[in-house]
Write a structure and sequence with these properties.
Elements (H helix, E strand, L loop, with lengths): L5 E3 L6 H8 L18 H11 L6 H9 L12 H4 E2 L25 E2 L2 E7 L27 H4 L6 E4 L14 E4 L8 E2 L3 E3 L25 E2 L15 E2 L14
Parallel strand pairs: 2-3, 4-7
Antiparallel strand pairs: 1-8, 4-5, 5-6, 9-10
Length: about 250
């Protein structure tokens, strides 16, 4: 597969940023620098429309998470360095940016909250020809995979990545979880992207001045030949990230 250049937020969207855009904070555990949670996939689409950003595709998310690695966890390869998982020390999510960044300068790609992505869950999507093209996004599942409710026009499960504050095994780079898009569990948040190719399948339109002050790594993730499946291994390609202040801010290029 091939991914066009994109920017992805250094941190998960915080409660303060969500409130600035959406006007209210849906989170159960309050804290301005905590990741927003209890948001549905539909809520995230509304946030994207209002902010001029977008949910990442699943392929974008895993490329950014792995940051050139093929281990269970990015960065140092140790979950205790890279993210919060279920333990007596972190029974719920924590303020963003407290753990080490991965090789692209991104924090909390493992643990803290699960992060919605654009794709519908399809376990065989990346074995189909359309996934080998540029910027693949799963928008529809084949008829033989539909659940009974979907046949009657019900919701199709969407993908969330990162594991949230679940057991460490769920926080691995390769793990994919699925939730109904109307699910607003207290473990679901988001990390938006800005697609530099504006005709990408899920590119956002930059028209709203209320865009949150998110910090993006200094260089876009540029993927030229990402050959493996999300959930199956590392993507090849190139990407880099610069440092920045601990607070989120929009980095104009």
């Amino acid at each position: 597969m091939t991914l066009s250049p994109f920017l992805i937020a250094k941190y998960e969207v915080t409660e303060a940023q969500w409130t600035r855009i959406m006007g209210k904070n849906p989170s159960h555990l309050k804290g301005e620098d905590h990741p927003v949670e209890s948001v549905t996939w539909f809520d995230c689409q509304a946030f994207s429309a209002a902010s001029g950003l977008a949910l990442p595709s699943e392929a974008q998310w895993e490329y950014a998470c792995r940051a050139g690695t093929s281990e269970r966890y990015g960065g140092t390869g140790k979950l205790e360095d890279m993210g919060w998982s279920a333990s007596k020390d972190a029974p719920a999510h924590q303020p963003v940016g407290r753990k080490k960044a991965n090789g692209f300068g991104l924090h909390d790609m493992h643990g803290n909250v699960s992060e919605w992505v654009e794709d519908i869950k399809d376990k065989v999507f990346y074995s189909r020809p359309e996934a080998a093209g540029p910027d693949p996004v799963c928008k529809m599942r084949p008829a033989d995979q539909l659940l009974p409710g979907e046949v009657d026009g019900g919701e199709a499960p969407c993908v969330a990545r990162g594991g949230g504050t679940h057991h460490a095994l769920f926080c691995r780079s390769a793990v994919r979880t699925a939730y109904y898009p109307s699910d607003g569990s207290a473990d679901l948040g988001l990390r938006p992207v800005f697609n530099l190719r504006q005709d990408a399948p899920h590119a956002a339109s930059v028209t709203d001045r209320r865009r949150p002050r998110l910090h993006f790594p200094r260089h876009p993730c540029s993927v030229h030949s990402a050959g493996s499946n999300p959930g199956a291994g590392a993507h090849s390609g190139k990407g880099s990230a610069g440092g920045g202040p601990p607070r989120n801010r929009w980095l104009r290029r």
